[in-house]
Amino acid sequence: MNIDPVPSLRQAAAAAAGTQQHPAGALYVVATPIGNLADLSLRAIHLLGLADTIACEDTRHTAPLLRHLGIDGKALLPVHEHNERSAAEVVIARLAAGERVALVSDAGTPAISDPGAALVAAVRAAGYRCIPIPGASSALAAVSVAGDLRGQGFRFVGFLPARSGERTQALQALAASRETGVVFEAPHRIEALATALAAACGDRLLTLCRELTKQFETVVTLPARELPAWLAADANRLRGEFVLVLHALAEETAGAAGAHDRTLATLLAELPLKQAVALAASLTGAPRNALYERALALKNAENS
Q1: What is the pLDDT of residue 1?
Q2: Cystine design at 42: which of 16, 30, 74, 235 (Cβ 3.0–4.6 Å)?
Q3: What is the DSSP letter of 214?
Q4: Can you tell me the distance from the alpha carbon of 283 to that of 286, in angstroms, rounded to the nearest whole number?
Q5: SS3 90
Q6: Minimum mean pLDDT among 8-17, 59-68, 190-199: which range?
Q7: DSSP category for residue 107
Q8: What does pLDDT average to over the chain?
Q9: Exposed e or buried b per residue across 142-175, where buried means at least 16 C-beta atoms within 10 angstroms of its C-beta
């Protein structure tokens, strides 16, 4: 006897949810897969079936997912970066009417480099519950396979600013920080980012994750200076979506840079920051990224 797998899957999801309550008049922030559909949790499937309205980043992306799950007849409400605040009024009205509203992005967890934060803030301000339905996250997936031995938590950067000046400042701050940093990048800008990280971070370890959870998933860890050549070695390495984990700096590295404060101070008095750091690295042999961080600290101390 053939059994339709979709009803069986939804029955399994309902059984797994057990007696947990999913109250009406609440916004559910639901994580969806970042590539592999098998990563959708049973609780997420159950909740999407319960929801009266599904607020989604792109209805053209969410509708096929719902069809795959055998979930039909749901009201789909577009909530994206251009209409999020106005859409919040519609969501709040539906919550007031006693509906369950599920919020999903195209992939992963909403409100993390995706629309959702403004909607959640508005719903909470209106006095309604926001309930997380956790699941896939490309940032957490990348950190989990980076093997960053010195990492104590991480700084989530997401996509760097598009404007040149703001992007340069964000890159400098990322390179100067000792903590683990997580950056997203699109395929058309990955080469430029790799070149910038190679110049700013040198021997600092970096883990690149490409197409996480998908058929051609790639994870590689190497010094930042080697990333441009690694990408150039195979055109396929430029395809897909990227998550980069810049590993934490060793404490002793920061201490070694501090040993060259006198050299840095002398150079900073005569040269712009980048030139001073480059010359200090040449004179002392100390890692450029550590010297850059120390130079920033010296300038900040001078200006405070």
Answers
A1: 41
A2: 16
A3: S
A4: 8
A5: helix
A6: 8-17
A7: S
A8: 90
A9: bbeebebeebeebebbeebeeeeeebeebbbebb
Tokens of 292: 């850059």
pLDDT score recorded for residue 6: 65
Does residue 150 carry a pLDDT above 90?
no
The band of 241, judged by pLDDT with boundaries at 50, 70 and 90, is very high
d(CA 287, CA 279): 12
Look up the pTM and report it: 0.79
Under DSSP, the state recorded for 32 is B
Written as one string, the DSSP assignment of 116-160 is THHHHHHHHHTT-EEEEE----HHHHHHHHH--TT-SS-EEEEEP
Rounded distance between C-alpha atoms, residue 106 and residue 32, angstroms = 8
The residue-averaged pLDDT of 217-225 equals 96
**Bridge-based pairing state of the strands 75-78 and 129-133:** unpaired
DSSP 169: H
Find the Cα–Cα–Cα–Cα dihedral 107, 110, 115, 116, rounded to 10°: 160
Cβ neighbour number for residue 214 with a 10 Å cutoff: 14
Instruction: Name the residue with tokens 């980076």.
Output: 146
Rounded to whole angstroms, how far apart are CA atoms 229 and 221?
13
The tokens describing 173, both together, are 């701050």
